[in-house]
Write a structure and sequence with these properties.
- The protein has one domain (5-85).
- It is of the alpha+beta class and 91 residues long.
- Strands 1, 2, 3, 4 and 5 form a five-stranded mixed β-sheet that branches.
- The protein has helices at residues 5-21, 25-32; strands at 37-42, 52-53, 57-63, 70-72, 80-85.
Amino acid sequence: MGFNAEQLDAIDQAVTHLIVRGDPLVPSLREQFPGVMFVRCSARDMSEQPYRNHERYQLHLLDRREHCVQVTLQPENADGVIIAEYGANHG
C-alpha cells in the first residue's frame, strides 16, 4: 500500500483533532481512512524512533509486508499507524 506525504498529513491532522475533542480515536480513524490499520498504545511501550513526534503523541508507521510486522520510518512501505500517546495507559 504505502503512504504519501498528503495521506500522512491528513492522518496526523485527524489524530490531533480527535485527541483534542476527546472523540473515540481508533474507530473514528478507521472510518475516515478505510484499509489503514490503526493501533493505539502508550508512548512508554514504544522503543522505536517515531515517524512524527508531537506534544501529546507519536506516530509510528507499520510495515506488514513480511511475515512479521515491524515499525518503519519509510512511508512507502507502511500500511498501518501506531498512535503512541504520552501519559496514556492503554495496556
